[in-house]
Amino acid sequence: MVPWDQLAAFVESRHKSKPQLVLYADIDGKTGRMAGDRKTPAGLGPMENPKVWSTMLRQKWADIEITDAFATMDEVSQRLARI
Q1: Are 42 and 2 spatial neighbours (Cβ–Cβ below 8 Å)?
Q2: For the whole prediction, is pTM greater than 0.90?
Q3: Cβ(46)–Cβ(40) below 8 Å
Q4: Which uninterrupted H or E stretch holds 65?
Q5: What number of other Cβ atoms are within 10 A of residue 13's Cβ?
Q6: ∠ CA 64-75-51 to the nearest 5 degrees?
Q7: Helix or strand or coil: residue 25?
Q8: 2-6, 15-19, 45-49: least confidently modelled range
């Protein structure tokens, strides 16, 4: 974990050390209500709509695989709802 404003620098550093880096994102914005603070990390474009998050990641890092994390995020959300 890194502070939100250091995300872009962290991804850049990890990508240099691990060229096959995979990022996981909610591809369709299905869990956008869990986004919390919608400010975009420094170094990335604006994100008013959580559905464009994966698109923004692909634009910034076209050579990094972006994988859908919805199933995992949904499961966590459901488990938290039961607490």
Answers
A1: no
A2: no
A3: yes
A4: strand 65-68
A5: 12
A6: 45
A7: strand
A8: 45-49
